[in-house]
Structure formats: structure tokens, C-alpha cells
Amino acid sequence: MMRNLSLSLFFILIISGCNGPVTNGPYMFISGLTQGTSYHITYQSPSSDSLQLQGKIDEILARFDQSLSTYIDTSNISKLNNNETDVVDDYFTEVFNESKRIYELSDGAFDITVGPLIDAWGFGPGRKLNIDQEVIDSILQFVGMDKVEVIDGKLVKSLPGIRIDLNAIAQGYSVDLLADFLEDQDIENYMVEVGGEIRVQGLSPRGDNWKIGVDKPYFGNQLPGQSLQKVIQLSDHSLASSGNYRKYYEQDGKKIVHTVDPKTGYTRMSNLLSVTIITEECITADGLATACMSLGLKRAREFITSIDDVEGFFIYADDDGVFYEWMSKGMNALID
């Protein structure tokens, strides 16, 4: 499994949204830093008075980090991983339950207990190890979401060494938290983006759907927006993307990517280069995109087509490096 990669091109949202007519109140724009990345929010104020939301949004994101960030020693998830507590908060419970659902849907391709493997391969906050089969076997005994449960507000582990890493789905959840907050303020038209994961509702400032770019997934393309594969138009839905081409390193002449198969313990390099998923809630899009990268092209196509109300857009390559696309039945109507 892997951490999501920001494939969504935020500046297209801004460019496509700010040159047209504005009616029924001004559109506001705020941004900031969170979760080791950035967030951007565009929304239409329901009155002539500018809503001062920045402070409240930063408070929500601070509570989110204090619950789910493995980089904060005092967070709820860090205490759970260190066996300093077994009590879970509401944020953790909601993300855990959705993770469990996607774990079961994907036959274990999405697994939030892979943190020790991510660390061992050099893509997490923990120590990178010299990988061999003995090391993998020693870690795999602590991997498997069937080994953890939330019961009566407490996390129950089958082994104390099991650790939870929600980085592959929590960012999408933070998008949903912010979107729900905006709706509580009677805001009907908005775009929320955190680290490339996006949820939109209503119309952009120019009065049409929001437009989101998907980058060409070639190794070395480190700058979002440098080269686009497609532009997707979206309203009243969420979008999340995952890919391998920006987070990797080379070792002994081979690329080591950060997709880790939870069943084998090894990184998974495949011809599936990027996945973009559209669902109603961003937490679901985030988790499904990650699951697809672990499944590989053939199984991911079967997986997405088997789920109702989910659209997928895949970019993959042949042995000569030529790019190809696959999209679900409803995705073609969303391509700009």
C-alpha cells in the first residue's frame, strides 16, 4: 500500500474559475499548511460580508493532526501505536471503519497496518532497513487489518507490536471534514483541496463545473501542472489520485517505489502508473485509489467496475513506455 500522491493540478481550478461572472456573493480564497503539505479552499460567501473562516479551518486541521498524525508524538494514533492508550477518538474511529470496509472490498489490498513495511522500505517516519526475506517475514506477523478491531471505543490488537498508519486515507477524510464545515456555514459553492485530494460542490466562480488536471505520470515529472494528461470537470463529488512516479528511489540500478503489497511485504512496481478515483466522499476516493495501485491494472479495473457510484481513470504504460488510458463507463462524460 502507499501514500497518495498529489496528481490533481490545483492551479487549473483557479484559472478556470476566476475569469467569469460572479453572482450571489463574492468568491473567497484561503490557503495554508497542514499534514506536511498545503490546502486551498475557494468558496462563495452567502452574503456580502466576507466570512472569516481561516481560523476555524486551521482549528479543525489542528484537531485532525492531533488525532491522526503519526508525526506527532502526542497524537491519539501515536499513543495507540506505542500502546500508551487503547482509547480511540471519533476521528480515528470514522477513518478506521472506512479503512476496514475498503480492506474487505479489496481483499486486503488496502491495509492500514502496513506502516512497519513502509518504514522498512524507507518511505515512512521510521528507520529504513536492509531488506531481505527474513526481515519481511519478521514484519509480516504484525501486518493485517484482520488483527485489529475497534470495540466499545477501544482499539484491540492481536499483537502489541501492530501499528496503524492512516496516511493513505486520512487526507481524504480531512477534505470531507472541511467540506462538511463549509456546508454547516450554508456555503453551497466551494472547492476544498488538501495535498491534491479534492471535493467540490456547486459551481466555480465562472458559473460552470470545477476543472481539475491530471498530470502525465512519467518519472522525473516532479512539478504538478508541468505536463497534463487530461482535464476532468467535476461538481458535487470528490476526487483523489495515487501514483508511483514521484515518490521513489533508485537502488542497485532499480527503481524502488512506495507501493507496498501488504500480502508479500515487497514493493510493487507495475505498468499501472496513476489512478484517479471519483466518489461522493473524499475519504472513499482516497482509499480506493490506494487500493487500486496495490492491485495492479487488471485487478484494479475489475475492482472499480464492481463498485456502484465510483468512477476511475487509469494511466498505464506498455513495455516500450507508451502511455495508455482506461476509464470507467461514466468517466468519459467528465473529461473536459
Write the layout of secondary structure elements.
Layout: E1 8-9, H1 10-17, E2 27-34, E3 37-44, H2 54-68, H3 76-81, H4 90-105, H5 115-120, H6 133-140, E4 148-151, E5 154-157, H7 170-184, E6 190-194, E7 197-201, E8 210-215, E9 228-234, E10 237-243, E11 248-251, E12 254-257, E13 272-279, H8 282-295, H9 297-305, E14 311-317, E15 323-327
Antiparallel strand pairs: 1-8, 2-3, 3-6, 4-5, 6-7, 7-10, 8-9, 10-13, 11-12, 13-14, 14-15
Give a written overview of the molecule.
- By secondary structure, the chain is α+β, with helices and mostly antiparallel strands.
- 29% of the residues lie in helices and 25% in strands.
- The protein has 9 helices and 15 strands.
- It has helices at 10-17, 54-68, 76-81, 90-105, 115-120, 133-140, 170-184, 282-295, 297-305, and strands at 8-9, 27-34, 37-44, 148-151, 154-157, 190-194, 197-201, 210-215, 228-234, 237-243, 248-251, 254-257, 272-279, 311-317, 323-327.
- The strands form 4 sheets. Strands 2-3-6-7-10-13-14-15 form an 8-stranded antiparallel beta sheet. Strands 1-8-9 form a 3-stranded antiparallel beta sheet.
- Helix 4 (90-105) packs across helix 8 (282-295).
- The longest helix has 16 residues, at 90-105.
- The chain is globular, with a radius of gyration of 20 Å.
- It starts with 7 loop residues before the first strand and ends in a 9-residue tail after the last strand.
- The model is unreliable at 1-22 (pLDDT under 50).
